[in-house]
Amino acid sequence: MPDIELKNKKILVTGGAGFLGKYVVSELGENGAIKENIIIPRSSENDLRNFDICNTLLKDTDIVIHLAARVGGIGFNQKYPGALFYDNAIMGINIIEASRINNVEKVVLVGTVCSYPKFTPTPFKEESLWDGYPEETNAPYGVAKKALLVQAQSYRAQYGMDIIYLIPVNLYGPGDHFDLEDSHVIPALIRKFVEAKKRNDNEVVVWGTGNVSREFLYVNDAARGIIRALLNYNKPEPVNLGTGEEIKIKDLVKIVKDLVGYKGNLVWDDSKPDGQPKRKLNTSLAELEFGFKSTVSLKMGLEETLSWYLDNQVI
Questions:
Q1: Cis check: omega of the bond before 121, within 30 degrees of 0
Q2: C-beta atoms surrounding 98 within 10 Å
Q3: How many CB atoms lie within 10 A of CB 263?
Q4: Whole domain around residue 93: which residue ranges?
Q5: Which of 62, 144, 154, 194 has the lowest tally of Cβ within 10 angstroms?
Q6: Half-sphere exposure of 158 (CA within 13 A, CB side)
Q7: CATH of the domain at 94
Q8: 306 assigned to some structural domain
Q9: What's the structural domain count of the chain?
């Protein structure tokens, strides 16, 4: 039996209207939460950088799942490093402190794989999180999110809060953001190849060398892992969420190109940064502590994501 029963719990999901958030809200319902008890603050009305707003939102709240983040790909990180640090740090700090003041029963913080040191040995183990500085292009975001782990562990130690911290790898799936300025690699590639095919372009330019590796977790799997942790995990140690499998970007690009059916040439722009050299998580702790394993293969997930994009054609 889960440690927590969701029925009749008032649950606040920051970022609940976003890409990952919609899947988390759906998973909450699958696990007994009542729709009317799930609160989803909209950023247009509730600026989480304002502590008083956070404090008001959390009155009479039982559970908080903090997903809200300002995030994007390498280009976005290079363009807005200051805002990415401040916004992500202050939102999390406010949510945690307001949760303490309002005696929230459980807090789930969702961090980022960008917090790991640039040259972390693979597969990344949770205990390696503090062994160096993150990759430079996304360090402001990664450090801001990692600071929330320190706050969480400190509040657990001093105030006895049930507050947990999860580290998902790169997410993708239907409903992702396809804006080329701030999207991640998979939606950016899908959009580039679909549009190039429509225009009959002779070539598509791809950032970097393609020699770095990444690990990708299907968004529905990520949501399932987050709710499993909410229900069954209560320890200070951070926990990775991923597949434990990596792929080189050049191989990923070929798969997406073939799925789209684009026949033109690839041009690698090696003047653009690759980002972190390798990303592959050790996912054994998630399986041990709350029985989470990913179920959707990368190829299946890419097919579902492409199909969604073709049906919706939105950015």
A1: no
A2: 23
A3: 11
A4: 11-173+215-244+280-295
A5: 154
A6: 8
A7: 3.40.50.720
A8: no
A9: 1
The neighbour count for residue 21, using CB atoms within 10 Å, is 21
pTM: 0.93
In a domain, 3, yes or no: no
Give the model confidence (pLDDT) of 223-251 as tens digits. 999 999 999 999 999 999 999 999 999 99
CA nearest neighbour of 315 among 88, 110, 72: 72
Smallest CA-to-CA distance from 215 within 171, 178, 250 is with 171
pLDDT, one tens digit per residue, over 56-109 is: 999 999 999 999 998 777 778 788 999 999 999 999 999 999 999 999 999 999
- List Cβ neighbours of 94 (8 Å cut-off, separation of 6 or more): 48, 49, 50, 51, 54
Strand partners, 124: 281
**165 is a catalytic site residue:** no
CA 123, 127, 131, 134: dihedral to nearest 10 degrees? Answer: 60
Would you say residue 1 lies in a domain?
Answer: no
Exactly one of 116, 141, 155, 165 is catalytic; name it: 141
Residue 200's SS3 state is: coil
Is 267 inside a domain boundary?
no
| 239 neighbors 230 (Cβ within 8 angstroms) | no
CA distance 33 to 19: 20
State the Cα–Cα distance between residues 268 and 277, nearest whole angstrom. 16
What the block records as the tokens of 229 is: 């942790």
Across-strand partners of 205?
267
